[in-house]
Each structure stands twice: as structure tokens, then as C-alpha cells.
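A student in our group prepared the protein record below, which I am reviewing. I have pasted the whole thing underneath without changing anything:
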Amino acid sequence: MRKISQIGAIMSVLGLGATAACGRNYPTSPDAATAAAATPTTAAAPESSNASDRAQASVFTGACDITSAVADFRTALGSLNPNVVGEQKGGRREVNWDAVPPAFTNTTSFPGDFFNQNFSPRARGVVFSTDGSGLSVSDNDFRFINPDYDAQFNSFSPVRTFSAIGSNTSRVDFFVAGTGTPARSTGFGVVFSDVDEMGSAFIKLLGANGNSLGVYHAPPCGSGFSFVGVNFPGPIVAAVEIRSGQGPLGADAADVSDRDHGPARDLVVMDDFIYGEPRAGR
């Protein structure tokens, strides 16, 4: 895979599955109730070379009204750390994209290492990449790519959202904040916008050796928000592969709710990334 950052080759997202040690859904509308019913709480165990670690996963999911699920996940990870260089003893860090300046907004060339610089507030220990042509942060729901997206997507923490360009897959690699030292996290969660169909959005967590720690699906909530987060007792997550939708954004790419404007697929963008403090040692 082609990467936007100077780190190793990206592994492709493999298959669909779901594992949940505990699932939480918070429906607040008829659509959300349908989503909750479709969200698996148990499933066949995904492939992994570390079954004991995988079995201890705590999974948090929410559809439509995701406020409680996000709050519970934040509590599980610990207090929010300052965005400073170096490793903290515990807690969590977050990326909500709203610190991205206009020069890097509404372009298709967002730097993958933007949030791993050796100064505050951009020292957050995450590097993003994709097998597509670029990465993008938008403050107008990606209508700079397609004006119809204005009616499709929303931001959970206003106003910026994130997407891969030329692909529906992206990757997050963890580093000690502001350094090139590979690190591991206790867990990772992401807010998705406009997941219409089950299976369109999921995260695959990877261990330090590239072993799968499980594939975890976000429940659908058309025109709303979906959340999935996974927490482990210790820092074992080295990277995360993310599928956001059934295909990439594009000038001729229409969402399933807008079939009159082109071939329809479930298109999805992302907002907040929430993760345990990246740490070099376990």
C-alpha cells in the first residue's frame, strides 16, 4: 500500500467480523432502534495470535445518540493528557481535527504525520496513512469534493471531519508522542458519520507483530453518528486499520441515500479519534 507518511507498508483490511466483550448501544430514534438490533454483541472470534489478550477486550458501541458510549470509553481509557512531547504514564489522547489550520483544510493532501510533531499541540503520537491517493480534513462536510455531501455528513465535534481520498481504508500507527519511537496503546475508538448499513464501517486492531486483535463493527445510523471503541487491560495495540464506507468519496460518488445522483454506495466519513496514551513499553 502507498502511505502518506514515512513508515512501513500498510497491511490491507482483511474480512469482516465482530468481537465484543461488552457492547453498548444508545438508540434515541426508530432508526437507532433498528441499528441496535443489528449490532452483534458476540460473534466468532477473529483471527489473532494472542487470544488471551483479545478475550479481555471491552467493546463500546453506540448509534445515533452516541454521547454515553463515547463518555464511557473515555472513562475506561483514563483522563485526557496534554498534547506534549513524550510518554505519559496512562490516560488518553484525542484527535478531533479542529486544531487543523485552514492551510491544511479542504485539500486532498493532509500530512499523515501532522499529529506526531515534536511540539505542542501537535504531539499526539499518531500517524495516518492510506492505500488511496491522499488524506483530507474538511470543515464543510466534504462538499468541496461533491456538493451533495453537504446533506449527508455532519461533525460530532464541530466543525472538521476526516477521510481518506481515493480509498475507503485508512490506518493509524502509534508512536511515543512527538517522536519516531513505535508505541502501543490500550485501545482505540472512532466516531463515524452516516453509516447506513451494517458492515460499512469497522476497525481492525493490530498488535506489535501485525497480529490481529480483532475486527469491530460500528452500528449503523443513517444521517447520524456511529461509534465503536475497544479497550484492553494493557497497551497492546500498535496500529489500527479503519474501513469507512463501501467506497471512496468522489465527484461522481453518491451515497445510498442519494441514488438519483449516481452509483450508490454507503459513504462514510470520520470525526473524533480517541485512544490510550501511546507507550513504548508495556
